[in-house]
Amino acid sequence: MQKNVQKLYSGNEVIVLAAIEAGAEAMFGYPITPSSEILQGWIESASSNRNLQFLQTEDETSAGFATIGSILGGKKAFTATAGPGHVLMQDPLSMAENLRIPFVAIVMQRGGPSTGTVNYSQQEVNLAAFGGNGDGLRVVYSASSIDELYSLTIKTFNTAWRYKFPSILLGDGYLAKMKTKFSPSKSIRPIKSTEMLEGKKNPTYLRNCFSSEEEFGAELDKNIADWNRLRSQIAESEVYKINDASEIIIAHGLVAQASKEAVEIMRNNRRKIGLFKPITLNPIDSRTLNKVSSGKKKIYIVESSRNQLSHIIKYELDKFCGEIVEISKPAQGFTAKEIVNKIEKD
């Protein structure tokens, strides 16, 4: 028998471990590739842990509303979905945005439109950040590795429960399915959740429908003011070899990993280029973005969608006078060499 055999974990398996570490008690979902193993893994964990609950609903809309109901019933609950299921979940996500419910959704992106492919995509950025009939008061994280899937799952729960905004973690089919060595990090500690509806003499009043424009407008203004006040506390990013750079690549998720390798290749060829990686796509870390882009000659925005990240970046850039080059490859992955070739051809 071999000694020192180390288990390999998929991204979906790591998410289940992280959700349990974050204190999640219930999961509601409908299986859809490439997120199905999250529900499957949760069910397996619940079979040996009576503190965990689950329900496979008839569709993703029901899963979203069941998640809301469970949270209002005192549970720290979440859901997971992908692609068309993410589309169906916009109604409950909008309700959670309106009622300021700490709704957590793990979204493993797949290629679209419609059923598209089951493999890989970054085409659900707009849907995650600005879907539904609201103004996008949702926190969106983007993971670029299996280690980040673990840490950002915990952070997604923490953010949802601390600030009471729906919080979404974006992964993709590659991250969901790939397997690697993994050791849980203890760098992010889960926060204790408080019940949405606490027992008290007078009822807690949550309102989702208004007949008066002025009354509803006042409620929206309050929520938007909270968002604007808190966004700097939530926004997060990483930079790599940026100090002496005259050009920068902006990329998120797995594309950021390939971009980091591309930076190394071009640095070895004496090209002064760096990387800005947004970890939150909504809100973007605009303070750091504008700081690192100031004085740069050129920005390359690289993504596996048709400029969804680019639209966000362009909106947040303040007084950038250089050139912006968009490098997009919808629903397809990038290698570092591809990124280098596209930049060198520019």
Task: Explain what you see.
With 346 residues, the protein is an alpha/beta fold. The chain has two domains: 9-180, Thiamin diphosphate (ThDP)-binding fold, Pyr/PP domains (Rossmann fold), CATH 3.40.50; 237-345, Rossmann fold (3-Layer(aba) Sandwich), CATH 3.40.50. 42% of the residues lie in helices and 18% in strands. It has 13 helices and 14 strands. The protein has helices at residues 11-21, 36-48, 60-72, 83-88, 90-99, 125-130, 146-163, 173-177, 213-234, 253-268, 286-293, 308-316, 336-345; strands at residues 9-10, 26-29, 53-56, 77-81, 104-109, 139-142, 167-172, 179-180, 237-240, 247-250, 273-278, 280-282, 298-303, 323-328. The strands form three sheets. Strands 3-2-4-5-7-6-12 form a seven-stranded mixed beta sheet, with helices on both faces. Helix 1 (11-21) packs parallel to helix 7 and helix 10 packs across helix 13. The longest helix is centred in the middle third of the chain and has 22 residues, at 213-234. This is Ferredoxin oxidoreductase. Residues 245-314 form the Pyruvate:ferredoxin oxidoreductase core domain. GO terms for molecular function: oxidoreductase activity.
Write out key terms for the chains shown.
single chain, 346 residues, alpha/beta, Rossmann fold, seven-stranded mixed beta sheet, five-stranded mixed beta sheet, 13 helices, 14 strands, THDP-binding, Ferredoxin oxidoreductase, Pyrv_Fd/Flavodoxin_OxRdtase_N, Transketo_C/PFOR_II, oxidoreductase activity
